[in-house]
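The aim of this short unit is practical: by the end, you should be able to scan a pair of folded records and say something sensible about each. We start with the first protein, listed as its amino acid sequence and then its structure tokens.
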Amino acid sequence: GQYDEMLRGYFAEDQSEKLMYDTVNGSYKVETIWLSKQYVKEVTKYETQRHSLVQYYRVANNKIEIVKTENGKGNYSIEALDKMEAEMVLVEAPFREGQSNGDWLVKKANSRWGMFKHVVVLERNDDGYITTLTLAPKFGLVYSAGSKDGEVAIESSFLQLNLANHGEDIRFEKFVDSA
């Protein structure tokens, strides 16, 4: 679709590693692997857990879809991913505040969050448990929170992005409130 290139920008570059911190599991790493122009694999490695969380995303038809989420290694060919139904649509472009993408609602579009510009804030209500995701261009997920009845159960925030082959690492030292 006409917005696919822009949507690809909401992931970190190929072979980069992002350091995150959450209030339950502590620090963890997210490795971004571009399998093709359409498919992104993110491997989340928690220091407190033996298994990694693997998520496959599809960027096509003006959407970012989560195609597959699983614990473990998760190695799928592009041909196999092409045949899979999406587990959910994460976001659809163009972004409009108040727009619903199935499970997710666009709360803010083209906003700021700390040092990040042009962020998109998504929210999902799952029987009163509210999940908030903040996505930034060139970084992907930079903040998430889960809450129930106004009480925050877990928060996760971006700390550092280690670029694959060039440039300086990008650090974000301050844990800031969501946009």
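Turning to the second protein, read its sequence before its tokens, just as you did above.
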Amino acid sequence: YSDDMHAAISRNRLTEAKLLEFSTYSIHTNLLQELATKHYSVRLLLAHPESTPNVYQRQTVEKYLKELLLMRDQYSNRYDFQVRCYRQTASFRGRKIGNQLISVSWFTYGTQRIERSNMPEHLKQSRRPQDLEGHTNVLINADLSTPEGRVLENMFDRVFEDLWATALTLDDVAEGIGLA
């Protein structure tokens, strides 16, 4: 995550973060830990493992779901940490930190990166027909006090709240796929 996001987290105390992700791959060990230590109220949306485009990405989401269960239990007495999983096709991602900063991006699909990799052929096959990427796409950051930031915030909040309303809780998903 960006230096701007780190600065926004450091400036805010006891506030809320809303995160819309696919697997938490790019934020798990740094951003989530920092939010936990700063006592943020976190609402995190990530993809339901059954909605991922291939076996490899399902396994990735399941791996991070297990870690999120542990993290929630570890920090449950120190801050509000809610996780839900959406079933819709991943297309948009973003992070909103308090009333300071919004970061948005998108997901792209394709197999060219996989084809060029040194990955064993059996793994390449498991990642077809489409591979979803977001962590290598640009993140657009905006200060929420600017007109541009408010436009991005409105879009993000609309998408986030729509997904949140129909998403399954972390416990329900973990039980449904045998992680609980």
